[in-house]
Amino acid sequence: MNEHAKEDLLPALTLGHFVMKVQDAAASSRFYIGLGLRAFGTFPGLAIVEMRGGTHLLLVDKGDDEAGALRNSQNGQRPDFSSEKIDLMIAARTKADLESYRVGLIGKGYLPSAIADGDLYGHHYFSMQDPDGNGISFYTSHCSDKPV
User: Fold this and answer.
1) 143, 92 Cβ separation under 8 angstroms
2) What are the residue ranges of CATH 3.30.720.120 in the chain?
3) In the sheet that 56-61 helps form, which strands lie side by side, from edge to edge?
4) How far apart are CA 93 and CA 95, in angstroms?
5) Is the dihedral of CA 133, 86, 48, 91 positive or negative?
6) Numbered ranges of CATH 3.10.180.10 in the chain
7) CATH tag, 74-148
């Protein structure tokens, strides 16, 4: 299959940036890099980490002028946490793979919850909080078998 034909099979859009306001962009960057995201860049009041597919998580210091221009928002599909929330998906589909990822986080000193009983719309998941108390849920993937 030529490269152009392959591109025609991909969805037209991807999430480019997800912005989170944090107390300390550098500390939050270290936290998310420890989860397995890739360091992308640091700037005064801002750290950028990269997720699978090239989506960038922008960690903006709450006291920064740029952060003041951001609207307050509530994110995520479940109200487990009172502040902002982000849902992340591992590159695997099984509960055993999710447990292996979770155990790896515990080995790094993170404090994730137990994997929830049952599933949520085909996802197995667990949650934890980042240094600012933002909720993070980690899910197994249920992407289609088409290229994403």
Assistant:
1) no
2) 1-71
3) 17-22, 56-61, 46-50, 38-43
4) 7
5) positive
6) 74-148
7) 3.10.180.10
Residue with tokens 């080995």: 107
pTM comes to 0.73
Distance from C-alpha of 137 to C-alpha of 130, rounded to nearest angstrom: 11
Of residues 78, 71, 101, 76, the one with CA closest to residue 86: 76
**Is 1-71 CATH 1.10.1040.10?**
no
Other beta carbons within 10 Å of 113: 14
Q: In tens digits, what is the pLDDT along the chain, a chain of 148 residues?
A: 565 566 667 777 678 888 888 999 999 999 999 999 999 999 989 999 999 888 999 999 987 665 544 444 444 333 444 456 788 989 888 999 999 999 999 999 999 999 999 888 788 999 999 998 888 989 998 776 766 6
SS3 state at 47: strand
